[in-house]
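Open question from group meeting: does this chain pack into something compact, or does most of it stay loose? Before anyone orders reagents, we agreed to write out a predicted structure and look at it together. Recording both the input and the output here so the notebook holds the full record.
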Amino acid sequence: MKKIRKAVFPVAGLGTRFLPATKAMPKEMLTVVDKPVIQYIVDEAREAGIEHFIFVTGRNKGVIEDHFDLAYELEQTLRSRGKKAELAILDAQRPAPGTASFTRQQEPLGLGHAVWCARDLVGEEPFAVMLPDMIMKGRTKSCLAQMTDVYRDTGDNVIAVEECAPELAHQYGVVGVGEEKGDAFRITAMVEKPPKGTAPSNLFINGRYILQPRIFELLETQERGAGNEIQLTDSMRALMDEQAFWGVKFDGKTYDCGSKVGFLAANVAYGLERPELTAEFKAEIAAILETH
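C-alpha cells returned:
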C-alpha cells in the first residue's frame, strides 16, 4: 500500500462572493486572525503526513506562490532587527525546497478539471484533494489525519462527510451508507443535490478526499455536468463501479470560509483561542453584542 504523500489544492477560483476584497487578492489569502485561509489547509495536510503540496492556480494567484516562498528582503530585515519570533513563524509555514509545486488551470472548467490538471505532478500514486475554502478543526486530530487512518486500514478511496439536518440534504452532495468498518463506512451512492425527500442519507461530502490515480483517466474523458463544468463527483461515481469508497464522519468543526458567515465565524473561533487575545477580544465582542 502506497503512503499518501501528495495533496492537491485547487486554488484557481475567482472568489466572487468576497468582492471587492478579492478583486486584487486571491480569496485563499484572506486572513483568519493572522494567517491566510490556505495556510490552515496546508497545516492540516502537514499534520496528516503530506510531503508534497500541489497548488492548481489561475490568473492573479501568484501571491499564493510568494506566500510559500522565501521572502529574502523581509527575512533579512527581521534578522537584522533580532526578530527571532517572527522569523520562526515564517520558517514554520514555508515548505521545504522542492516540496511545493504549482500548475495552472487556464480555464474555469470545474473542480474535476482542476484535479485533472495536477495529473503529471501526482503521478501513479494515491493522493489527497483538499478544498481551500474549508478550515476544519478536528477535536483530536485533523480531518485528513482521520482519513489517512482509514486509508491505512482499507487501501481504498476515502471521503470525509458531515451530518446536516435531513431537511437540508437537498442542498449538498450526499452519500449512501453501507457496511461499517471501525470508524468508517462503505459508501454505496453519491448524489449531488438530490430532490427533497430522496436523499440516501443526511451525510454530505465536506471537501476532503483521498483518491486513487485511476481518477485521472476517468476525468480525461468526463463530460461536462452541473454548471457546464467537469465535476469531480461524476468521475468518482464512475470509479465506484471499479473500486471501493469509504466515508469518514469528521470529528470536529468546519468553517466554510467560502461564505461570509463562515469566514467571520472562523475569525471569532480562532481569535478566542489565542491566549494573548482572548480577554480583550471577548470584551470587544460583548460590547458589540450589547449595541446590536
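Observations to bring back to the group:
The chain has a mean pLDDT of 92.
The chain is about 35% helix and 25% strand.
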